[in-house]
Amino acid sequence: MAKNNVKKGFASYILILIMAILATFLVLIVVAIFSPFKDILGFKYFTYNDEEYIYRTSIDSKDYSFNFENFEKIKINCNYADVKIERSSDTDTHAVYFENHSVGFARADQDTNFTYEVYYAPENTKELNIDVHEPEGLLFLNKNVSISLLIPVRGPYPELAPFTQSLENTTVEIINTSGNIYIGNKIKPVDHQVDNKACLYVNIGAINIKKTKGQVLFRDYSGADFGDVFIKSDKGTIESTKDLNIKNLNIYATKAKFNFKKVNYSGDTAVLNLGNSKFYATEFSGNVNLTIQNGYFDLDLLKGTLISDNSENRMAKATIYIKEVQGSVALPFAYKSRIDFDKISQGSQLQIRGTDGDINIDELYGSAWIETTKGDINVHTYADDLSVRTTSGDIDVVFDNPELFDGIEITTDSGDVNLQVRSGLAFVLEVYNTKGELIRTREDINIDWLGSKVELPYKFNSGTKKIKITSDESINVSLINNNK
Asked: DSSP readout, 133-155?
């Protein structure tokens, strides 16, 4: 009985101690809140509610008003602040707008000051620099800090024409750690006096973005035309709500997410170094050099060339899915990647070499050369010839064409082969073992309409073009059920 009383007393003591510590902690928080920026036992509370427009800055003791149309470069360097490039009806001249509504707690040794500097490059009014230091903190209750490049919808006087120009001749460079970047307005800028739609959009000559994480968003009222787009992002999301026309594109990412609509690329070759990222676009027109490891690459339509020929940074276990190819695809280092195509259009070319990954083509109208080590190959082709090879994977081919041009060649060392052909196709079937020996008869070779007792080579419909199959495993040849 005495032991139970001792336990209850100890538990009560611990409870009282915890409540005392909690009460002290709450008192310290209240004291800190009413004494912002003061050191309270090694911690401090900070709060901001700042907004400021900057219209000009000085060089060599002379003030110059901003005119973004004349800038060759605008460079923004910040940490977690959001960066916005927008049209505005709240200003009648170009401006840099700062907002800081951050609230939180910090250690006493952290710099909670909010500072910024807007300045021209030395002796150069063509280049504007914007450096921002956001408050450092341990716990943020609100992390709302933003830097905006504001382009007016119209000038200060009603008789002046709207600002149709924005940043067409300017390179905007943004170095940002975790903040979001917004290009263009989300909704139409409010100005009922303006009929010219050009003054509602933000057009940028070139944009260069380097960040660790956070979002990059090309919004509805972003311009469509970019001379140069460079994006380097470890994580985060890069997205466009509208079609983009780009002359030069370079993307480097580690584990980011990309979501684009149509990308019309007019340069030589776009560089997409995606690492383990996920990339999606409704359409990509142009040439692409793709580097991807364990990521996901998804296009509805490719109009151009897709190559991934970097042997040093070959694919690992990536997934490539393209609904339709109108051009050519060359993936000589696909390794263990899974590759799926819904349609390879007529005149298109496909070259793939992988190891363990499966390859699937629902509709093949162009030419294809496919080789894997262990992966399975499944092809439904409407083309007039085909060459597929695997070491130990299975091969399933539906040859849905009434005639052959050069022929069909199917090779696997230890995989099964299933081939379907049209009933009207004329061909000569030759079967070889992996030693290169022509097979005359074998029990695991089956032609559906003849069974397994068939002498080879077998001529069908008096054909002369060859279907050559090499395998030591079972082979089955049958007719397509839905003959056309």
From this structure: EPPP-SEEEE--EEEEEEEESB-
Task: Give 134's DSSP letter.
Answer: P
In a 10 Å sphere around its CB, with 0-12 CB exposed, 13-18 middle and 19+ buried, how is residue 417 labelled?
A: buried
CA distance 84 to 81: 10
Owner of token pair 């050191």: 39
Residue 210 CA to residue 23 CA, distance in Å, equals: 45
Residue listed under structure tokens 């003591």: 13
In the block, residue with structure tokens 């495993």: 473
Q: What is the pLDDT of residues 411-461, one digit of tens each?
A: 999 999 999 999 999 999 999 999 999 988 888 899 998 877 788 999 999
Look at residue 199 and give its three-state secondary structure: helix
Mean of per-residue pLDDT scores for the chain: 89
- What whole-number distance in Å separates Cα of residue 468 and Cα of residue 385? 11
Segment 57-106, tens digit of pLDDT: 877 667 778 888 889 999 999 999 999 999 998 888 899 999 999 999 89
Q: Write out the two tokens for 219.
A: 């919004």
- Are the C-beta atoms of 377 and 358 separated by less than 8 Å? yes
Q: How far is CA 407 from CA 96, 116, 179, 214, 401, in A?
A: 67, 70, 57, 52, 11
153 band by pLDDT with thresholds 50, 70 and 90:
confident
Closest CA to 260 of 227, 218, 320: 218
| Euclidean distance between CA atoms 149 and 210, whole angstroms | 18
CA 468/CA 473 separation, integer angstroms? 15
Residue 366: the pLDDT is: 93
- 183 vs 207: CA distance, rounded Å: 10
Only one residue has tokens 């030419």, namely 367
The span from the CA of 256 to the CA of 296, in Å, is 10
Give the DSSP letter string of 385-453: -EEEEESSS-EEEEE--S--SS-EEEEESSS-EEEEE-TT--EEEEEE-TTSPBPS--TTEEETTTBS-
Q: Is the pLDDT of residue 3 over 60?
A: no
The C-alpha angle 446, 452, 455, rounded to 5 degrees, equals 100
Quick check: 265 and 304 in contact, CB under 8 A? yes
| CA nearest neighbour of 329 among 316, 343, 311, 313 | 343
CA 281 to chain centre: 8
- Helical ranges in 49-199 per DSSP H: none
Omega within 30 of 0 (cis) for the link into 36: no
Q: Does the predicted TM-score (pTM) go above 0.70?
A: yes
Give SS3 for 7.
helix
Q: Output the six-digit token pair for 93.
A: 């001249």
In 255-337, beta strands by DSSP E: 257-265, 270-275, 278-292, 296-307, 319-335
Q: How many CB atoms lie within 10 A of CB 89?
A: 15
